[in-house]
Design a protein that fits this description.
The complex is a heterodimer of chains A (243) and B (876). Chain A has 243 residues and is an alpha/beta fold. Helices cover 18% and strands 27% of the residues of chain A. Chain A is built from five helices and 16 strands. Chain A has helices spanning 38-44, 56-67, 86-100, 116-120, 206-209, and strands spanning 6-10, 13-16, 21-23, 28-31, 71-75, 104-108, 126-128, 131-132, 136-138, 151-154, 159-164, 170-178, 182-184, 195-196, 215-219, 224-226. The longest helix of chain B has 32 residues, at 596-627. Chain B has a seven-stranded parallel β-sheet, with helices on both faces. In chain B, strands 8-13-12-9-11-10 form a six-stranded parallel β-sheet, with helices on both faces. Chain B has a six-stranded mixed β-sheet with strand order 18-17-21-20-19-22. Helices cover 43% and strands 16% of the residues of chain B. With 876 residues, chain B is α/β, with parallel strands linked by helices. Chain B folds into five domains: 35-255, Rossmann fold, CATH 3.40.50.300; 261-422, Rossmann fold, CATH 3.40.50.300; 435-517; 527-583, Beta Barrel (Ribosomal Protein L25, Chain P); 658-863, no CATH class. The radius of gyration of chain B is 28 Å and the shape is globular. Classes of the chains: A alpha/beta (243), B alpha/beta (876). The A-B interface holds A 35, 40, 42-52, 54, 80, 85, 87, 165-169, 171-172, 190-193, 199, 239-240, 242-243 and B 480-481, 483, 485, 487-488, 493-496, 510-511, 514, 531, 535, 547, 566, 568, 571, 573, 697, 743-745, 747-748, 758-761, 764-766, 774-777, 779-781, 784-785, 788-789, 792.
């Protein structure tokens, strides 16, 4: 393993360069916002983009190889859209079956997974609304957040930062958003545009990240690095009546 | 209103004269008939003779062609009667058919204009002659005229399908939509098409789309389509004719531009009023205000939207008595507000309107008696076009003045003036084989009916922009539309068309519905609506600009100073500002490069000046400027002031020898190349040179219209032959291509092409795609395709657009070879010479970081300039 391929966030809680989190005690690998089948889903919407998986299945396999977890947990939005097309269904089934042959797979349902049980319920994966071990409580993050003394691990936000790349273009980098109460994982999908953390978050996020400075760790697929500075997030003021 | 006019009966401006029944009574007009009138339908002839004493010059030239059914390009200034020249033959033919009772329930003639407003004006003006023709006809045989644009209500459209207009007034987008509709299939029997303001289509992809639509129209009618193009300025004529007619013959009827336009240059009396660099219009605001005060109604054109706001604000402050009659008009101002301004302009109720390109096209405003252009225009044609918006004509001449905003601007203004006087126009650059438009049109065709592939290819290749389309490109676009492509391969997965047995057709009705929502080639940037408290919409500004504002900060939009109160997702709530420091918003939008024609003109001026200075110094230059270049005294003084400073540093830079300034700063070294070739060419030159000298990014390049510089670490002084090799023609284009292909710089340019090419429809049957929606992000999609399918037709189109349309790679390649072969003169200077200052300060970090860039730039440039002052020359 190369030097920056993972980062210890807390003892035994490791951030992987793909955006996954590995929990040493439970031997569990957590992945948020995989949005499998994204390219097909966009075609069904009428967009004629390339039919590619963007390398996500290979990344999933590589992460499983690297950590050899006993459990694989998808923190919501495992698929992008319900009612998959035949090729889409085939690709997702293959990937999930392959994963299930190597680890016990749990799918925490996200807002994109409303039809997951109906579409993929026949696969050997368990479906839940949250997952926990003695130290963390893992959810997708689209519903009300539970009040817990444990570290809250979640997805849904697709946190990212934008950096100039030297050619005069802004580059997007997915990041781990690391707070005292909660950890937000970056989207595992290569197609997530990402929420730019330079912009104000909607007001309710104050509950999780208000009144503290947070750390960010950027992932590139081969490296994960903490940003040198702590960041104070901005929050939108609850708006008055819109015009 | 766009008036249709012949030769004026009176000396009053002819442009606003209504053509309706109660117009001026016939005067001794009989007998003035040109020989061609005999060919007009008698009722039309009668109507014409009641209103006009004779055919105007352009009508005399154009009518023999239009009446003979020939293709013709009619080039004449606004107000010369060219629109009527085009319509007379159309109306005459319709009247003849109506008389004979053979007018079918089908379209016979189509008028296409770039602006909806223009179409409405044309309809209003055609009502009188049509009335004259129809009054003698029984109700069932009358000629029908209708407007059809994006604004036409559904009910009216459905009515048009049943009772079809014989003369349709429309836009390219609505025409494309019409061509695919089943309800119109047998109703398209068009004999003649009139394309107005054809220059406005020529350089963009709208023109490519229109050219393909004309071929579809012709094929549908089953007979040759007569094509009539109209423009005030369109050159080279043959290129424009090819856009209109493809390889078919096309006659040209024109009036010499030299006789129809007159342009002066105005400068402040004191040359020190003008800064040595920058585009800040405040310095000339007093001069502009004086001119505005003296005239009845003034149109003030600026290069940028920001400057329109600035000058509008300045005029309101300087002319408080007219505050309510001074407005700002540009494409980010709310549409209703813009229409109101246009209405008030045409009814003579505005003292002044400051505008950017948004008022450049279309009709003249009769009340406007003065046009001022602030800042040297980047092209000659657009300057001429802007002059034409004034309704004031002396002997048919559109006159106006340019006011430079800086000393170097003076040279560019003189160059524009001279080119206009000599009738040298900018060459329009018409894109060839744009594949995104091809994809959109092929999809439209597949909805119209099933096509044989060879038949469709033949049709496409009859259109001017696609005369030499490679078959492989055509096939690649079909394959892409069919959902194929290399990645995970194979046809048929959610493709938009189905290709089978050498034929293609649309895949589903959903695809067709989505297509209708996404016709067109104009891509929006994502804008934030700006609402005044109390729910009045002011206009739109870019997301980036609003993001840079703090609540409470003030800016100006549509001439109103406002303060940001709240920012919601797509809406900024503002209130009127009082007394705060006010910023002018910036809008995304790349500046047009200096035209090649203008660059050559400016080089000629520089060469003249250099020679005169060498011969007789300041006096010889003054004489040259006043005589050969016809510069007024204030302009002469300004240029002398500028040149005298330059001579303290180095000679006036020209094209041969190439002047290179080497400037050593604390830790870096600057090689400054004076190349007057426009920013696109200089961008290419600088990019390739920087990449060749330092592929690791250690050499930084910046450029503008008049040169570029390479900046590097102070320790890396290149030997001159190594520097020269950076322009070597061998592999030059390949280096540029590599630089583009390997970088992600094109991600931003990809989105509009993906939208035109229907890869990312802006709207789907599920609603409008919002930037927030989880959808393909342009840059991500670009990098995905770059990785998995770099040969995708829309990827190649992105590269082509960037290389040819934006970087002018072919021209730049020739320029690189010239730079490589030419003699260089090297000057080691302690600071940039005055001619180099505008570029140097534009990228000066102190300026870029400053809170108020304009102010910082002004200060820095003034100091640097003054250091070049010649103690022997008293400063004015």
């Amino acid at each position: 393993m190369t030097h920056h391929s993972y980062l210890e966030l807390r003892p035994g809680i490791l951030a992987d360069c793909t955006g996954a989190v590995y929990l040493e005690d439970s031997r569990a690998l957590l992945i948020a916002d995989a949005h499998l089948g994204y390219a097909w889903a966009q075609r069904r919407r009428g967009e004629l983009g390339p039919l590619t998986d963007g390398g996500i299945f290979a990344r999933l396999d590589a992460a499983l190889q690297r950590w050899k977890p006993h459990q694989l947990v998808f923190l919501g939005d495992v698929v992008h859209l319900g009612r998959p097309a035949p090729e889409e269904r085939k690709a997702i089934e293959q990937a999930l079956s392959r994963a299930a042959s190597q680890a016990q797979v749990t799918v925490v349902l996200g807002n994109h997974d409303r039809r997951f049980a109906r579409d993929f319920g026949h696969l050997p994966v368990s479906v839940a609304l949250q997952w926990e071990d003695p130290r963390v409580l893992a959810i997708h993050g689209d519903r009300a957040w539970p009040d817990t003394p444990r570290w809250l691990l979640m997805g849904h936000l697709h946190p990212a930062i934008r950096m100039p790349d030297g050619a005069g273009v802004m580059q997007r980098l997915p990041v781990f958003l690391i707070g005292n109460r909660a950890l937000v994982l970056p989207a595992f999908s290569p197609f997530a545009a990402g929420f730019n953390l330079a912009k104000p978050l909607s007001a309710e996020w104050r509950l999780l990240f208000g009144g503290e400075s947070v750390e960010l760790a950027a992932v590139t697929g081969t490296q994960v690095r903490k940003l040198p500075r702590l960041v104070t997030l901005r929050f939108a003021t609850p708006s008055a009546a819109a015009p | 209103m766009k008036p249709l006019s012949g030769k004026p009966l009176s000396r009053k401006p002819l442009s606003r004269k209504p053509l309706s029944g109660e117009g001026s009574p016939p005067q001794q007009a009989r007998g003035a008939t040109a020989p061609t009138t005999v060919a007009l339908h008698p009722a039309l002839n009668h109507w014409f003779q009641q209103r006009f004493p004779a055919f105007s010059e352009i009508q005399q030239r154009a009518l023999p062609h239009t009446l003979a059914g020939e293709n013709v390009l009619i080039l004449a200034p606004t107000g010369s009667g060219k629109t009527l020249a085009a319509f007379l033959s159309v109306l005459s033919a319709l009247a003849t058919e109506a008389d004979a009772g053979t007018l079918p329930n089908a379209l016979r003639a189509v008028y296409v204009s770039p602006l909806k407003a223009l179409g409405n004006d044309i309809r209003r003006n055609l009502e009188a002659p049509l009335e004259a023709l129809n009054s003698a006809l029984p109700a069932l045989r009358r000629i029908r005229m209708e407007v059809r644009t994006g604004d036409t209500p559904l009910q009216a459209r459905q009515q048009q399908q049943k009772s079809r207009p014989h003369l349709l007034i429309t836009t390219p987008e609505s025409l494309a939509s019409l061509l695919s509709q089943r309800g119109f299939q047998e109703g398209l029997r068009v004999c003649t098409v009139i394309v107005d303001e054809i220059h406005a289509f020529a350089e963009g992809k709208r023109g490519s789309m229109l050219a393909l639509s004309l071929e579809r129209l012709e094929l549908r009618a089953g007979q040759p389509l007569q094509r009539i193009g109209l423009s005030a300025t369109a050159w080279p004529e043959q290129e424009v004719a090819r856009l209109l007619c493809g390889a078919r013959p096309c006659a040209i009827a024109s009036i010499d531009i030299r006789r129809s336009h007159r342009l002066a240059v105005l400068a402040p009396e004191n040359p020190r009023t003008l800064p040595p660099a920058g585009h800040n219009p405040y310095r000339v605001a007093h001069l502009v205000a004086d001119r505005v005060r003296a005239a009845n109604s003034t149109l003030v054109f600026t290069i940028t939207r920001s400057n329109a706001e600035r000058i509008g604000l300045a005029l309101q402050l300087l002319l408080p008595q007219h505050e309510n009659d001074i407005a700002v008009h540009h494409s980010s101002v709310d549409l209703a507000h813009r229409l109101d301004i246009e209405q008030r302009l045409s009814t003579n109720q505005m003292k002044a309107v400051a505008a950017s390109a948004s008022l450049e096209l279309g009709v003249d405003f009769s009340g406007v008696d003065q046009v001022l252009l602030i800042g040297a225009p980047h092209g000659i044609s657009s300057a001429m076009q802007r002059l034409g918006r004034s309704g004031h004509r002396v002997d048919g001449v559109a006159a106006g003045a340019i006011i430079p905003t800086s000393l170097p601007d003076l040279l560019q203004c003189l160059a524009v003036q001279r080119a206009a006087r000599e009738g040298r126009m900018d060459a329009l650059r018409i894109p060839s084989n744009p594949l995104d438009v091809l994809a959109q049109v092929l999809l439209g065709m597949s909805i119209e009916r099933e096509w044989d592939i060879a038949e469709a290819l033949a049709l496409v290749r009859r259109a001017g922009p696609y005369l030499h389309l490679p078959e492989s490109d055509f096939q690649a676009v079909l394959e892409y539309l069919a959902g194929g492509g290399r990645v995970l391969g194979g046809y048929g997965t959610y493709g938009k068309i189905i290709v089978e047995n050498g034929r293609f057709r649309v895949a589903s009705r959903t695809v067709a519905r989505t297509y209708y929502m996404n016709i067109g080639t104009i891509s929006d940037e994502y804008m934030i609506r700006v609402m005044l408290r109390g729910a009045k919409k002011l206009g739109e500004v870019s997301e980036g600009f609003v993001g840079s504002l703090q609540p409470g900060e003030a800016f100006v939009l549509g001439g109103q100073a406002v303060r940001l109160k709240q920012l919601h997702q797509n809406v900024a709530i503002v209130e009127k500002a009082r007394g705060e420091r006010i910023r002018a918003p910036r809008w995304v939008g790349s500046k047009l490069p200096l035209s090649i024609r203008l660059a050559n003109e400016e080089l000629a001026l520089r060469r003249d000046l250099r020679q005169s200075w060498e011969r007789g110094g300041s006096d010889a230059c003054a004489h040259l400027l006043a005589s050969r270049w016809e510069a007024p005294p204030a302009v002469v003084q300004g240029i002398l002031h500028f040149v005298a400073h330059q001579m303290q540093a180095a000679p006036i830079p020209v094209d041969d020898p190439i002047q290179v300034e080497v400037i050593s700063q604390q830790r870096s070294l600057l090689y400054f190349f004076h190349i007057v070739a426009g920013r696109a060419v200089n961008h290419s030159l600088a990019w390739v040179a920087a990449r060749r000298l330092g592929a690791d990014g250690s050499v930084v390049a910046n450029f503008d219209d008049h040169g570029f510089y390479l900046q590097m670490d102070g320790k890396r002084r290149f030997p001159m032959d190594e520097l020269r090799a950076a322009f070597a023609p061998d592999g030059w284009l390949e280096t540029l291509r590599d630089a583009i292909a390997s970088s992600e710089a094109l991600g931003r340019d990809f989105r509009p092409i993906a939208e035109v090419g229907q890869l990312l429809p802006k709207q789907t049957t599920r609603g409008r795609t919002s930037p927030k929606a989880a959808t393909w992000n342009g840059a991500l999609l670009y990098s995905t395709l770059l990785k998995y399918e770099p040969e995708h037709p829309l990827m190649r189109e992105t590269v082509r657009t960037f290389l040819e349309d934006k970087m002018m790679a072919t021209v730049a390649q020739q320029e690189a070879a010239r730079v490589y072969a030419c003699r260089w003169e090297i000057y080691n200077l302690p600071r940039p010479s005055p001619f180099a200052l505008p570029l140097y300060v534009a990228f000066n970090p102190e300026v870029l970081m400053a809170q108020d860039r304009e102010k910082a730039l002004d200060e820095i440039v003034a100091n640097l300039f003054d250091e070049w002052a010649d103690p022997g020359i008293p400063l004015a």
